[in-house]
Amino acid sequence: MTPQEWGLYEYIFNGVAALLTLCIFSFLYKDNPFYKFAERLVAGVATGYFTMLLFWTNFMDKVYDPLKAGQWWYIFPAVLGVMMWTRFSKKWAWVSRYSIAFYIGIGSGVSITVYLYTYLFKQLQATIGFPITMDIAGLNQFLVIIAVLSALVYFFFSTPHKGALGFVSKIGIYVIMICFGAGFGLTVMGRVALLVNRVIFLKGYLIQLFGG
Amino acid sequence: MKREIPILIVGITGFAMLIQYFIPTDWSEFIFTYSQDWVIVIGIIAMPLGIWSLVKANVNKLKVPGERFYSAVLLGGFLIMVLTCLKEESRMAGSFHMDLFNYVLVPIQATIFSLLAFFIASAAYRAFRARSILATILLLTAFLIMARFIPLGPISIINLKIDAWILQVPNMAANRAIMMGIGLGATATAMKIILGIERTYMGHD
Amino acid sequence: MNIFQKMMQIDRRWVYLAIGLAVIIPSIKSFDVPVTVSPEVKRIYDFVDSLQAGDYVFICVDYDPSSMAELNPMAVAIVNQAFVKDLKAIFVTLSQFGPGLVEQITSQLAANHNKINGVDYAFLGYRPYPAITILAMGVDFSVPFPQDYYGTPLDSLPVMNGIKNFDDVKGVIEITSGNTADFWLIYGNGRYGFPLAIGITGVMSANYYQYLSSGQLFGIIPGVKGAAEYEELVGFPGEGKAQMAYQVIAHSVIIIFIIISNVAYFATRKRKAGLEGGNQ
Amino acid sequence: MNYFNRVLFALMLLLMIGGGVLAQDTGLTAVAAPDTLGPPAPQPPTNITVTDREDDGGHGLVIRWELSEDDGQGLNNVNMYDILRSSALDGEYMSRGIVPSGTNEFIDEDDQELTGSDPNLNFMPTGSTWYYKLAAISVENVRSVESEVVAGTTESNLFHWGKLPILFGVLIFGGFLLAFISQAKKGRELYVRPLSGINAVDDAIGRATEMGKPILFILGLGTAGDIATIAGFTILARVARRTAEYQTKVLVPVQDPVVLAVAQETVRTAYLEAGRPDQYNPDNVFYVTALQFPYVAAVNGIMLREKPATNFYCGKFYAESLILAETGNIAGSIQISGTDEIGQLPFFVAATDYTLIGEELYAASAYLSREPVQLGTLKAQDYTKAVAMVIVIIGAVLITLGLPFLLNLITVSL
Q1: What are the two backbone dihedrals, phi and then psi, of residue B35, each rounded to the nearest 5 degrees?
Q2: Domain check: are D129 and D211 in the same one?
Q3: Interval B103-145: pLDDT, tens
């Protein structure tokens, strides 16, 4: 938005946003009433926003509209949802375990195949997908396989990590540490960019207020 | 009745969802989407539990002198977001509700997120000390990867080659191994839950 | 307590202050940070630089707004270079967000360099299904794009006179935040064999270096860093270098702190060891 | 609306939605008329077969053909094949896709049944019959004559053969699991190697007791259906059980109402089993707020004001991992973390005292419980891991020898 377009409303709201930004940054110095204010405000606002978001999207789409359209089978999850409310009563709280049971049962049942596929089979496929050739790429592929195997050995729980197994598992944890170091180093850029955005926002507001 | 049946339900639904995965027919697909809707619907309708927990704690704090103001702010923020959104149109851009979202929630969230720039530096300062072989490896890798931003002429070009190798070989290999481990661990946990071996999450009287 | 012990227990707020300044100072007064140009970026610059006025380059803009910060500076730098060299540019996008980005880049830079749409460059538009679109363009640009983005038939655009498909362009530069680079590699370079270079986000870059060594790509511009390098080569400091200033300073600050931390650690550790020795 | 209007309306919709594809189709047909003086037309593909696509609910067909005589040989001018489809033998044939030369297979599928005012005319219902013909298109963009028409009918399948490797995975893993559990039940001793993160749990609880300060247990941002969160619950149960014995307070701030309910049940039961149901205070497991960063802000506040002796992080964590861990560090807490989010593990490793890496998070419950049956599952994980390692070794050797046999065996096609 160019400066001319701002009315009082925009000045106030952007000012609020700028002040709240500073309140959060003040946490870096130490915990203080301004931070506590912003923290509580955002907790309330976020809960209110999220509640209404769920109501107008998920509740309408998955409960109200289907039932209105005659999809009576949506009454079952709705009843299970209402059964969660028995937790307000000490005597009847156990009823909510039925809802929890469905919730966790579905989650676990779906997870088994999802995890096996994405985390195990896809990784296995990727690991043995390339031949070990007599060039740089082949050497790297060979090293990848050695590194995968040794890192897997590190995750053995039921054997003592001693002797040869201990040596391989040590290589494994070294490789894992390289991975973590790389992950850490790679993330710095994105995090700095986030801070740059906030600083540019504050700078923009100051320019808006006092002119370039 | 109060514990055994719920555990049985966990087992039956879990097993049903496991079988469903291997059946490609339309009704099997329907069961999948329908079951996901169950999870969503239970989650939404349970929302009052969370709200109650939050409101109760903060209403209680209204009596505590030092906390009164902050709890009032929280409750006020919650109420105003609910009251400004009693109609569906209020979720359109430009409404007061969405302005509160854009000028209160969004900047605070973005700022908390941006605190990471500071914390990543302080964590690096504290943790990246060559105390042990493991710490040294962690430190050196992070150092080399971060150093790709430092203009050092020909050294940078060599460093970039090393970085590319680190990412393609040890980093990728370790990622794969960790993922395989996670795959097995998560599957084991899910199976324990379905078989009723792990039931600590399910209360009893 | 000596200086090293003090450094070991430095208040974390000094670290915060340093990071804060590292970001605030460049935002107040932008300054030029030196960048080391990597060979894979230089090759793209040299390629464009070696072309003669009137040669055609094909630029595919396939990123979405969330990657704009990283990728837009690259596109701007390349188009700048092409316009300065009086090359003819053909733009296409395989991303639904592309049209807005291309329009923004071309309209702004064309005005700066007095270039005319349809005469000096053309924007053919957006098509879904990258594989089919790339294959079809290999036959004839007018197969997937009978008209350009603005509705003018291709054969009535002066810039498209005498060029038909990839055989008539000197090279393709693809700037992407998604998987479209894979399509360009398989269906574009793999099938029609034209020189291909890509500009991608920093996170993705590690996956594409293998195509450099295999010769399928002649260059890669990785993330903000690559964009800054390209701007350095072209001599138009822009968004890329501005962002790079923040990154170089912030990364340097963290690296300096890590060095201080380790120097202090080793200094105090030796001291301790010495003391223990003395007690025995 | 009568039939004509509906078709017209649907066509208009198609034009608007699929403008890109249609524009391309028209582009291709526009230059289709073979010029007698122009470049020669290629031969069309032959021997077309249309079969049901396997592993689906009956919404796809596989079209295969023999390459045109001019594809890679003869005139060698084929550039691509156009696959045309109609719902009736003599109906209107529309292009369903283009594949490059050298390809002899195309999968035609559409399972998006849109009803109401926005019908999907391309939808292929179960048991529907479709008619196909193909044309080759030359590099000069000249179309061959069209091939003969072949029909195919979609069928619904009862088993997804492409997922067979996963079924084997489930059976092998499940088999190991049951075998070791039954061994454990017979009383066979099982060794588990020490994990420093687990050994630290007792010290951490002891420290909290000595200091008279609470323990903060953070279950992350997952839902109660995420396995990582459930693993968090199981660790919470073991931790709460011990703290109940020591009478140390456990604070559990959560951001999801179902997680709230399960966490309350978990902690309450732990206190019950420790014989101190009176000590349980439901308000110690509480909902703080919904979204990611507001939750972080609230937990940060709790850390700095309550100064917990120990922070546990067990579950799904995203960008907030480092914010929480650094704040916990400022507050001077001992921190034990575990997550299966690979992107966050580096930050937990750097900023917390002990980290359970990936699979270790899932193993933690077994470690803490020390029950033989639980430890048996660790043995099953190890054996399956060994099988995976053998697959990697043999698979790498085979692929290097040019034998993709094992790779194909474990390749899942969804």
Answers
A1: -65, -35
A2: no
A3: 999 999 999 999 999 999 999 999 999 999 999 999 999 999 9
Shortest distance between the Cα of B162 and any Cα of chain C, in A, equals 11
B window 55-74, beta carbon within 8 A of D: 56-57
Domain of residue D253: give its range: 190-370
Q: Please give the single-letter amino acid code of residue C244.
A: M
The full set of domain ranges for chain A reads: 131-212
Identity of residue D192: V
Instruction: Report the chain A residue with the minimal C-alpha distance to residue D233.
Output: A104
Q: Residue D292 is part of a domain; what is its CATH number?
A: 3.40.50.1220
* Spatial separation of the C-alpha atoms in residues D101 and D111, rounded to whole Å: 27
Residue D306 to residue D322: CA distance in whole angstroms: 19
User: Is D397 among the domain residues?
Assistant: no
C 7-26 residues inside an 8 A Cβ radius of D: 12
Residues D147 and D198 in one domain: no
Tell whether D315 is covered by a domain.
yes
What's the maximum distance between 2 C-alpha atoms anywhere in chain D?
A: 97
* Whether residue D25 sits in one domain with residue D149: yes
Q: Is the predicted pLDDT of residue D134 greater than 60, yes or no?
A: yes
D26–C146 CB contact, under 8 Å: yes
Q: Is D97 helix (H, G, I), strand (E, B) or coil?
A: strand
C-alpha atoms less than 13 angstroms from C-alpha of D127 in its C-beta half-sphere: 2
Give the C window 56-95 contacts with D, CB below 8 Å: none
Residue of C nearest to B121 (CA): C254
Residues B141, A87: C-beta atoms closer than 8 Å:
no
Which residue in chain A is spatially nearest to B186 when comparing CA positions? A115
Contact C60, C169 (CB under 8 A): no
Of D230, D272, D323, the CB nearest to B193: D230
pTM score, two decimals?
A: 0.89
CB atoms within 10 A of CB C157: 19
C158 contacts C118 by C-beta, under 8 angstroms: yes
Q: Domain for residue D273, yes or no? A: yes
Tell whether A197 lies on the interface with D, counting CB pairs under 8 A.
Answer: no
User: Which residues lie below 8 Å from residue C155, measured CB to CB, with a gap of 6+?
Assistant: C142
Is D178 within the bounds of a domain?
Answer: no
Q: Answer whether residue B163 shows pLDDT above 60.
A: yes
Segment-wise mean pLDDT, segments of 10 residues, chain A, 212 residues: 72 94 96 96 96 92 93 95 94 94 95 94 92 90 96 95 94 97 93 92 90 67
| CA proximity to D355, closest of C172, D347, C149 | D347
Are residues D258 and D134 both part of a single domain?
A: no
Separation CA C226–CA C81 (nearest Å): 15
Rank D2-11, D34-43, D240-249 by mean pLDDT and report only the highest: D240-249
> With contact defined as beta carbons under 8 Å apart, do C184 and C157 qualify?
no
Cα dist. B105→A11, A40, A45, A100, C81 in Å?
17, 12, 7, 31, 42
What is the model's pLDDT at position D77? 86
Query: With 90 as the cut, is the pLDDT of residue D223 above it?
Result: yes
Judged on CB neighbours under 10 Å (0-12, 13-18, 19+), A187 is: buried
Q: Do C143 and D139 touch (CB under 8 A)?
A: no
Same domain, D135 and D221: no
* Cβ-defined contact of B107 to A20 (cutoff 8 Å): yes
Query: Are D199 and D147 part of one and the same domain?
Result: no
CA-CA distance, C179 to C171, in Å (whole number)?
20
**Are residues D339 and D206 both part of a single domain?**
yes
Q: What is the pLDDT of residue D20?
A: 40
CATH of the domain at D21: 2.60.40.10
Amino acid letter for position D311: N
Overall domain count for chain D: 2
| Domains of chain C: residue spans and CATH | 11-29+251-275 (no CATH), 39-236 (3.40.50)
Q: What are phi and psi of C2, to 5 degrees?
A: -90, 180
Residue D265 and residue A97 in contact, taking contact as beta carbons nearer than 8 Å: yes
